[in-house]
Amino acid sequence: MGTVIGAQLFTVREYCKTPEDLEKTLERVAKMGYRAVQLSGVCDCDPVWLKGVLDRLGLVAPVSHVSFEKLYERTDAVIAAHAALNAPYIGIGAAPHIFNKEKDLANSFADFFDKVPAVIAKIKNADFQFFYHHHDAEFARSANGITYIEELMNRFTPEECGILLDTHWVQAGGGDPAAWIRCLTGRVACIHFKDYCINPHMREVRFAPVGAGNLNWPAIFEAVRQAGVKYAFVEQDKCYEEDPFDCLEKSLKFLRDAGFKD
What we know:
- The protein is 42% helix and 14% strand.
- The protein has 10 helices and 9 strands.
């Protein structure tokens, strides 16, 4: 398969709090066999220094996650950092306020849709691509009867706005991950491989290493192939009693066994 498997560093964020720890974590991830990383949940550091570390380890970091607030207020600085990293995709983790249940979801997205066009235009004019990472809230239907993720697609072209699809959150939002990957063909250069499982003891939804949960991975892999996904980043938001590095290794082994090779 032509898709490069990467590690979403949010999985190991507790080991990325200083530049020194970040470098050690990147060394561990590269040693496992990952060839790409997504910079999310990591410390602030000099992007030129970081690019040197990545190059030394044979890693690329094509997409990041920054807060929308930072991207909105410091767009030029964020673009400059991505240029130093040779990262073509500028991503946000979510629209503001969508996790705040005291705020109306419709108003939160209305504010986002009001502010984001100027940011997207500046990113596109600099020859980068804006990427939106969704959760489950984007699969709620707005007043006009379509989901918020569909509204995002309707407002912006694929060149203006890519979607960093997350397999777990599609499932949590009531969608079919493979179907949505196909639907978003042309927007999904980068996605998250994240499993969705039910804890048999607590009867609750949990995160799990890829392949250890309930998602239909053969269907997802076929959709990834058809959609021409360039990078798939393994992510596990919580690892519970397991070591997050062990979880990354388990996920990578499953994917290698499934046919993803460098």
